[in-house]
Design brief:
By secondary structure, the protein is α/β, with parallel strands linked by helices. The chain folds into 2 domains: 152 residues, HAD superfamily/HAD-like (Rossmann fold), CATH 3.40.50; 66 residues, Orthogonal Bundle (DNA polymerase, domain 1), CATH 1.10.150. The protein contains 9 helices and 8 strands. The strands form 2 sheets. It has a 6-stranded parallel β-sheet with strand order 5-4-1-6-7-8. The chain has a two-stranded antiparallel ribbon with strand order 2-3. Strand 6, helix 8 and strand 7 form a beta-alpha-beta unit. Helix 3 packs across helix 4. The longest helix is centred in the middle third of the chain and has 15 residues. It is elongated, with a radius of gyration of 17 Å.
């Protein structure tokens, strides 16, 4: 029997990357004379990848993207972000300790994110925590990405774990919808990047701190799904 697994989303779940995403976004906007996005606007902008961030920022500022401009701005965004990794990004309080609890209990841990795989690995390596994960799967790892359940199921397979003994941890509707479509219980953090409270998307559980994420909770969710 394969090992059980906890699969984490990255931005807004495992690591607070918003300050650096915002810096890179504002670097792009400044290049075309658009006023910067403020931290108070971050939940309307961050969390869906760089292209969507740029599109939303233009919409908020009531500006139209010219043909080909999105590709150019995304390239500028990625160059700036990559050059400044890890910047101000930090793991959320208690998450490394939570990973330790699960690994001590025999669980595998992995990442399933819509951030590009290379950027994800660079960030986790720069933070010194990439060794915690058997698989780090990004938006370009497979032909599909979240909310397609194949992204999550392929991540679990790559990590060598059992999809019937899996729990997803995320911060957004995308994560919750992905897990539900894969038939996997999902724990939502309520401190991530979403403009609506995660309770509206009906995850299996909601936590406000990683101290609340216990092996007993995960085992209960897995058992309830199998029943």
């Amino acid at each position: 029997m394969s090992a059980p697994i906890i699969v984490f989303d990255l931005d807004g779940t495992l690591v607070d990357t918003a300050p650096d995403l915002l810096d890179s976004l504002n670097h792009c906007l400044a290049s075309v004379g658009i006023a910067p996005v403020q931290e108070s606007e971050i939940n309307r902008i961050v969390g869906f990848g760089s292209r969507v961030m740029i599109e939303r920022a233009f919409a908020v500022r009531q500006r139209q993207l010219a043909e080909g401009q999105l590709d150019a701005l995304q390239a500028l965004f990625l160059d700036h972000y990559t050059a400044n990794v890890p910047g101000r990004s930090r793991p959320y309080p208690g998450v490394i300790e939570a990973i330790g609890r699960f690994r001590s209990a025999g669980y595998i841990t992995a990442i399933c994110t819509n951030k590009l795989e290379g950027m994800s690995k660079s960030l986790l390596s720069a933070l010194g925590i990439s060794h915690h994960f058997e698989a780090i799967c990004g938006a370009d790892t497979f032909p599909m990405r979240k909310p397609d359940p194949g992204h999550l199921l392929n991540t679990i397979a790559m990590a060598g774990a059992d999809p019937n003994r899996a729990v997803m941890i995320g911060d957004s509707r995308t994560d919750i919808d992905t897990a539900k479509a894969a038939g996997i219980p999902v724990v939502a953090v309520d401190f991530g990047y979403t403009d609506r409270h995660v309770r509206e998307f009906e995850p299996s559980r909601i936590i406000s701190h990683f101290d609340e994420l216990s092996v007993e909770m995960a085992e209960g969710l897995i058992a309830a799904t199998a029943a």
